[in-house]
Structure formats: C-alpha cells, structure tokens
Specification:
Layout lengths: L3 E6 L3 H11 L4 E8 L14 E4 L12 E4 L7 H9 L3 E4 L7 H15 L2 E3 L8 H12 L3 E7 L2 E2 L1 H8 L4 E10 L1 H8 L8 H4 E9 L5 H9 L9 E6 L2 H7 L5 E11 L3 E11 L2 H21 L4 E3 L14 H6 L3
Parallel strand pairs: 1-2, 1-4, 2-3, 4-5, 5-6, 6-14, 10-11
Antiparallel strand pairs: 7-12, 8-9, 9-10, 12-13
The structure holds NADPH dihydro-nicotinamide-adenine-dinucleotide phosphate.
Amino acid sequence: SNQIKIGIVGYGNLGRGTVEAIKQCPDMELVAIFTRRTPDSISVNEPNVKVLHISKAVDYKDEIDVMILCGGSATDLPEQGPDFAQLFNTIDSYDTHAKIPEYFNSVDRAAKESGKTSIISVGWDPGLFSINRLMAEAILPNGENYTFWGKGVSQGHSDAVRRVEGVRGAVQYTVPIEDAVEKVRSGVNPELSTAEKHLRVCYVVAEDGYDQAKIEQDIVTMPNYFADYKTEVNFITEEELKENHSQLPHGGFVIRGGKTGSENKQIIEFSLNLESNPEFTASVLVAYARAAYRLNKEGQVGAKTVYEVAPVYLSPKSAEELRRDLL
Ligand code: NDP
C-alpha cells in the first residue's frame, strides 16, 4: 500500500492517544508498538496491532517510515530520541524547555548521519503555542505575549501532592485566573507573574485518620510547586476521585496585545480547550509524522522543530488542492 507506515515507541497515555489518532488518518497505517516492558503484559484494544519488545525495532528499519516516540521527557527521550534517529524518521514531544537546544543537537547529529528526518518537541506547548507566539511577535513587534495554561491536570504537580504524607490519591488542576485573562484581552498589557495568572486547585483523598488541616498546610507551603501560588485544597473520597477526576483535560490561551501605528490596539488570541491532553497531543504528533515522511522524501534531513515545518507538509491534501482552498 502507499500508506505511511507508522511505529509507536512507548505505550503510556501518549502512546494510547497515538493509536486513536492514526485511526483517523486514512493515509497512515500502524505497523507495531514497541515497549520496554514484556509485550504480553500490554493489552491494546486493536486486533491487528502487534506489540513487540523495543529491541525488535531494528528489524523494522525498512518497514516503518516514521517512529512516533511517546516516552517521557525526563529520562526516556534523551536516550530514545538520538537512538531512534539513527534508524528512523522520528517525531517526539520533548518538553524539558531548558534542555531543548541540547536535545536538538544530539538528535540532529544522529539524523544527519543516518539521512533521516526528526521533528522534535511537537505537541501544543511546546508546539502549536510556540508557533502562535512566534507569529504574533513577528506580526506585532510592539507588544507583549501572554500564555495561560488550563484548566488542566498538571502531572508534575499531581505527583508532588501524592508524595505528601497522609495523601492516598490526588489530582492538581492549573486554572487561569479569569480577571488576569480579561485584563490581557483588553489590551492593556499588564505585568503579571505566572502566579498572578494561575490558580492551583487540588483534589485530595486523605489516608484514614490523617489530619486534613496538616495535609493542607504541607501542600500550600511546598516550595517551587505551591508556596508562590494561590492554592485551593479540596478533600474528596476515593470514589469521587475516580468518578470525577480520572480524565486528563487541558488547554489554554496564547494572547498577544500589540499596537500598530501609534494608537491602534491589536489583539491576537489562540486557544485550546481539550477534554484529553494526551489524545490531542498525539493528534498533533501524527500530523507532523506526515510532514517528517515528506520532508525526508525531499532530502531535508536532520532535526527540525515546528518552526521549520511549513503547514503544507501537515495536510493530507496536495499543495495544489490546498491552493484551491486558500480562500
Ligand atoms: P506516561 O508516563 O504515560 O508514559 C511514558 C512512558 O512510560 C511510556 O512510553 C511507557 O514506556 C512507560 N509506561 C507507561 N505506562 C506504564 C506503566 N503502567 N508501567 C510502566 N511503564 C509505563 O507519559 P505520557 O504518555 O502521559 O507523556 C509522555 C510525554 O509527553 C511527557 O513526558 C511530556 O513530555 C510529553 N507531553 C508533551 C506535550 C506537548 O504539548 N508538547 C503535551 C503532553 C505531554 P514503555 O512502553 O517503553 O514501558
């Protein structure tokens, strides 16, 4: 077939989302999922999809066009990114902001050597939000960018709450402060710290017999995570946690307020409202997999970021069809 043949490396939230996203793309075919765990221990709700040990990936060198790397940014991707770029075109969602230049270089070296194309740090932030910040700034040089995140589950902050003594289960939502959003939308370009833009809302299940006031105090005073924020702590039951808080919603806004001429206020806004962060992020990865495949066919090898990939490469339509759709 002339479908683009896709492999998935790592089967967590993003890996599962990628299986779903590929199903919505008739020009793509999922060949296999590769995992570090025992393949038999993993169940995939797709009858025709193979789950294989990661060590078998090399055997698929000529059968997979693009590997979508769904590992975590902290420890998986720094190894898997350059490793897989030696054999495959790759896409990943590396999001450790401070280390992106270093990561880019290590993947770029590997991809140039193998003649492959790797698009790194794809998703919504980094990703779609980055593109929108860049566009807004290029168009309105006299202005200010603002990014608000949420309402959404922050995995890192949820983990931090779970580590507090006496906590059995917890979820943390990052919530944009409505007043701050409205101020930015009005175009006054206020000075706002991250803490002035976001509220942290925790839902916590306490261990039996633990003092809730003590748990709350331990959370709201936690340095780096909560101490500098307005933090709300709600105690709920284990059933409520499962019933109402097991999805991973997210989203946010990128807003730029700028001025042209001398007086005219111009506001650019891009927003996302996501019921499932991993399914959405995976959908972005899959669109960029199409781009990696095409860029490689054109001989554009090495690492790229979303900044360097023109929109025409993302669409399943041809450039000619897209020109007809331009208006
Ligand atoms: P997960 O923790 O769900 O999965 C990460 C890896 O852990 C998997 O690839 C899998 O590897 C392993 N794993 C998953 N479940 C289990 C388990 N039950 N037991 C043991 N190992 C497991 O992470 P997510 O999929 O939620 O997120 C991955 C990354 O995506 C994040 O680190 C973040 O960097 C990025 N991200 C980026 C976004 C963006 O906008 N740019 C948005 C959202 C996420 P294996 O199968 O090999 O064991």
